[in-house]
Amino acid sequence: MFGKYDLNVELKEEGIEISITGKGKKKSYYRKAGEEEVEKIIYAEEGNVVICPVEPVNLPNEGTSQHLLIELEKPIIIEPRIEDVFYVKFPVEVGVFLIDKKDVERIDIFTITKPKYILYGPPESGIICKWWGSDAFSEAPEVKRLYEGVMKVEAKNNYSEWVEIRKMVFRALDMKLFYNEHAFMHSYLEILKKTMGETSFNERKPKNMKRAIDIYLAKGIKRLEKKFVMEWGFK
Amino acid sequence: MNIGAAIKDVIDYQIKVLGGRTVGDVIFFFVILFVAVIIAKIVRINIRRTLKEKVPKTTLNAVEKIFYYGIITVGFLAALPYIGVEPTGLMVAGGIAGIVIGFASQTVVSNLISGIFLLIEKPIKIGDGVSLGDVSGVVKDIRILSTTIRTWDGIYVRIPNEKVFTSNIQNFVAHAARRFEYKIGIAYKDDADKAIEIIKNLLEEHPLILKEPAPQIFVEELGESSVNLAIRIWAPSSHWFSVKTEMLWKIKVALEKEGIEIPFPQRVIWMADKKKG
């Protein structure tokens, strides 16, 4: 389903239906995901539609959170001064965009995942994050591509003691999403202290993958800091 | 006569109406004024750049104007002696006027100072849901002298900043998450553990009920007519009210669907046996 299409398209996959139909300038957009249905009218002559994964923090309430917290089902304990690579799954939110040479317009975002929020840190100073539970895999796991994506995590323990990681928090503004068959992100986790670390993302496009549309860049929001500081620990 | 001497003559030329001040003095007066305006503009631009994202537009305008006209006034007073006007005379007149104005504008100054402290301390921000004394609503604007609130029922309320500063402020959205509580009674004949499990599963399904801090559900009291359960739920501060209004009925429906009764107040009456009596 991910990819670039003409303004006349009908797609069906894993219970999701997307169609843009109609002759001339007036088109009809229809999307069904689970029990949710959306219909819109599009006036367009040229241009294309792009369907790709987007930063998974927009649903069910855009603006509630700008962070994704991934909780490992089995925690990882990392030795001092050691680097390790593992993979986790993250929830997929699918964005539908209209594009032409000058502009990108978001027309829809949907998901078939069951969203849940969590507080990272204390109530008085913590942040609301979108929550997702995942195992840690030594190799890229198989995923249902419209349900979950794969995140490669390069973890580095720069602290002088063993550190247990159960939670990792990523800022949506920092995320760099790619896709081919499934959604993909490549992140870094640098452990600075027992209860403090930094998360960031690799911006380089992997081979045979396409760069997803960055909804923050599309909105004209620029990033000042490219790292998120996890100041309330990893548990 | 060379040009240098001619210019010196012009500069040294005394102007009678200005008490014998020279043209050079007048030029110097304007130079000081010009420099003061330039400095004021630079300060204004820097204030705008620094505070643009941090304070509301109206406050920013007020701060800009205070600095801009303050610097020009200082420059003007510093330049006055060059045109034969001694600022000490103005100071005396200004001082007397200041005392008069000061008495007349005590409240205004008090509100102004409170406004500045509110901007520094930032107990409330525009858009926050707050309770200020006996007024509750959404903060629409924080100006230099007053704060405006749109109450929950849509009424415009202007509160002087002095009152805001000295009243008890409750900010409902200052923290990321907040907790609310329900109390639900179930019949004595029903299984409280089962009821807790049903409610727990229902809360787990709702995306805006936080996974952590986890909801707490427990038997709080053995009441007169029911076993009373306490349900404590954390939700994002921005959405807690919608979650609160939504969940109570859903809990009631879910409990009744599983055959758990929410009883009316009741009293068991034992009648004395007449035969035995």
Structural commentary:
The complex is a heterodimer of chains A (235) and B (277). Chain A contains one helix and 19 strands. Chain A is mainly β and 235 residues long. Chain A starts with a strand and ends in a 5-residue tail after the last strand. The model of chain A has no long low-confidence stretch (mean pLDDT 89). Chain B is an alpha+beta fold. In chain B, helix 2 (23-51) runs antiparallel to helix 3 (57-79) and helix 7 (192-205) packs across helix 8. In chain B, a hairpin with a 4-residue loop joins strand 5 and strand 6 (156-160). Classes of the chains: A mainly beta (235), B alpha+beta (277). Chain A binds chain B through residues 60-61, 63-65, 114-119, 121, 123-128, 131, and chain B through 174-179, 205, 207-208, 210-213, 234, 236, 238-239.
Q: What is the topological layout?
A:
The complex is a heterodimer of chains A (235) and B (277).
Chain A: E1 3-5, E2 9-13, E3 16-21, E4 26-33, E5 36-43, E6 48-54, E7 67-78, E8 83-91, E9 93-99, E10 104-110, E11 117-120, E12 127-134, E13 148-157, E14 163-171, E15 178-179, E16 183-193, E17 196-201, E18 210-211, H1 215-218, E19 228-230
Parallel strand pairs in A: 7-12, 13-16
Antiparallel strand pairs in A: 1-6, 2-3, 3-4, 4-5, 6-9, 7-14, 8-13, 9-10, 11-12, 15-16, 15-18, 16-17, 17-19
Chain B: H1 3-12, E1 14-15, E2 21-22, H2 23-51, H3 57-79, H4 87-104, H5 106-121, E3 129-132, E4 135-142, E5 146-151, E6 156-160, H6 161-166, E7 169-171, E8 177-186, H7 192-205, E9 216-222, E10 227-236, H8 240-257
Antiparallel strand pairs in B: 1-2, 3-4, 3-7, 4-5, 5-6, 8-10, 9-10
Helix pairs in contact in B: 2-3, 7-8
